[in-house]
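Hi Q.,

Before the meeting this afternoon, I wanted you to have the FE2/S2 (inorganic) cluster prediction in hand. No need to reply - just skim if you have a minute. The sequence and ligand are here:
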Amino acid sequence: MLQFLLFSKDFRVYGERFYAEGKTQWITIIFEKADGTQFKRKAKVGGTLQEIIGQNNPEFPGYGACDGTVSCSTCHLILPEDIFDKVELITDEEQDVLDYAPERAPTSRLGCAVSILPEMDGMIVKLPAVIKDIRES
Ligand code: FES
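Predicted structure with the ligand bound:
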């Protein structure tokens, strides 16, 4: 699939999807830790999943350590299969980092590499039990 990112005065284009600038769309995403604890968060369509939790969040220790630069794997998330099929393809850079992420699953992605889509409203995304910063290996 051809991936591209274009900016114009009125629209951002992510692949085949169009989001009107200035018309922020908010959805709800549920993060589920390995122990079953769930955290419901508002999310802005067009942002990334990592931005929702951020960096140095006490509820998610260690998450987002590289602050979205696709180099640590601490934002490893496991997406529902139907959503995994809709998000942008994994780049070689993301693949290299995911290869070292603990508990890798078939629908694993890095939160900093996945754009938030309207179809994610109500999605339950799982966090692995082990969060590892691969830069410390
Ligand atoms: S925040 Fe480090 S890889 Fe995503």
